[in-house]
């Protein structure tokens, strides 16, 4: 009934990837667990990089803002999908869809920008260590983060304004679990989506420029690392650089393929996996990836967990 009447509604119908009720519940629970794990991981990173003195360098300052962006990005799409799946209703209003586009685009672009800043920070730390304190001074780091958030807000505003200019025709069915711009473009009337197509092309070009900057930074980094005489020094550099490079590769490759690949008229397994890879997996895995080979973070997390365990045990013993 919802599908039949969707053309008369002002909003859209998020179809997900199956009409099977059991699969809907399974996906909703899977997304919920992923969201809780991702939120917990990012919250831990935010907490320890804020409270612990040994994590107050520019690298961890940028990592904190990456976690804030990741946590925000997860909160834009996943809770709404879980709620819709459990309520057995994929309807999303026009206003909710536009807000989702704004915040998702803003946070996604912010993540791309902060990853670019982080690569430059690693380049300065490894290739120009004597000038690091001057180039990456606290004031400049603050300005860099401010530019990241401002650029995210601007990109979100431009994308949303472009989307508002689209006239939608036919069944307003989105074969996705959130309001994804490539899917919305399929619903537009002919010749009226040139503005948003141009915006997507422009932002893709800017993203490619950022990715090129990241690649250039790592070319210089690796050329410097391989000239290091000490194997211990090389290992230490790789422990901080490889996680960042993996995060960048996963985020950029899946996002670019999803936005540049023509969408089909119906949901496919490939589109489902791609949407997961660039919307859910990066913000969920980032805390784990950055912690696996970083001994400082692992040490602080162990102290935090031990302190939390001791506090809970003390409270429990006092009460009972």
UniProtKB/TrEMBL annotation:
Major localization class: membrane
Limits of the G-protein coupled receptors family 1 profile domain: 41-290
PROSITE patterns assigned:
G_PROTEIN_RECEP_F1_1, G_PROTEIN_RECEP_F1_2
Question: For this protein, what is any one GO molecular function term?
Answer: G protein-coupled receptor activity
| Pfam families assigned | 7tm_4
UniProt GO cellular component terms: plasma membrane
Q: Which keywords does this Swiss-Prot/TrEMBL entry list?
A: Cell membrane, G-protein coupled receptor, Membrane, Olfaction, Receptor, Sensory transduction, Transducer, Transmembrane, Transmembrane helix
Places the protein is found: Cell membrane
Q: Which residues cross the membrane?
A: 25-49, 101-120, 141-161, 194-221, 242-260, 272-292
Q: Which domain of life is it from?
A: Eukaryota
How this chain sits in the membrane, per its record, is: Multi-pass membrane protein
Explain the purpose of this protein.
Odorant receptor.
Regarding protein family, the annotation reads:
Belongs to the G-protein coupled receptor 1 family.
Annotated protein name in UniProt: Olfactory receptor
Question: Which species is listed as the source?
Answer: Mus caroli (Ryukyu mouse)
């Amino acid at each position: 009934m919802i599908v039949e009447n969707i053309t008369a509604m002002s909003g859209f119908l998020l179809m997900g990837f199956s009409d099977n009720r059991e699969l809907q519940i399974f996906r909703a629970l899977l997304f919920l667990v992923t969201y809780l794990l991702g939120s917990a991981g990012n919250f831990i990173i935010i907490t320890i990089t804020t409270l612990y003195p040994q994590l107050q360098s520019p690298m961890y300052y940028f990592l904190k803002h990456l976690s804030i962006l990741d946590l925000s990005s997860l909160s834009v799409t996943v809770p709404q999908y879980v709620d819709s799946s459990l309520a057995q209703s994929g309807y999303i209003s026009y206003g909710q869809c536009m807000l989702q586009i704004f915040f998702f685009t803003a946070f996604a672009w912010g993540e791309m920008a902060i990853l670019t800043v982080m690569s430059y920070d690693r380049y300065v730390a490894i290739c120009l260590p004597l000038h690091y304190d001057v180039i990456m001074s606290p004031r400049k780091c603050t300005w860099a983060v401010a530019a990241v958030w401002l650029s995210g807000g601007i990109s979100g505003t431009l994308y949303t304004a472009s989307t508002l200019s689209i006239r939608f025709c036919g069944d307003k069915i989105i074969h996705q679990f959130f309001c994804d711009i490539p899917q919305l473009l399929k619903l537009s009337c002919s010749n009226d989506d040139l503005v948003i197509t141009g915006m997507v092309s422009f932002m893709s070009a800017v993203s490619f420029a950022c990715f090129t900057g990241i690649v250039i930074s790592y070319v210089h980094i690796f050329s410097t690392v391989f000239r290091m005489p000490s194997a211990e020094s090389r290992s230490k550099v790789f422990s901080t650089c490889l996680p960042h490079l993996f995060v960048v590769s996963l985020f950029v490759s899946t996002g670019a393929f999803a936005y540049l690949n023509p969408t089909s008229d119906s949901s496919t397994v490939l589109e489902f996996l791609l949407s997961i890879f660039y919307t859910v997996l990066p913000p969920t895995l980032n805390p784990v990836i950055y912690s696996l080979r970083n001994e400082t973070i692992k040490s602080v997390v162990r102290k935090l967990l031990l302190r939390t365990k001791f506090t809970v045990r003390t409270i429990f013993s006092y009460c009972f």
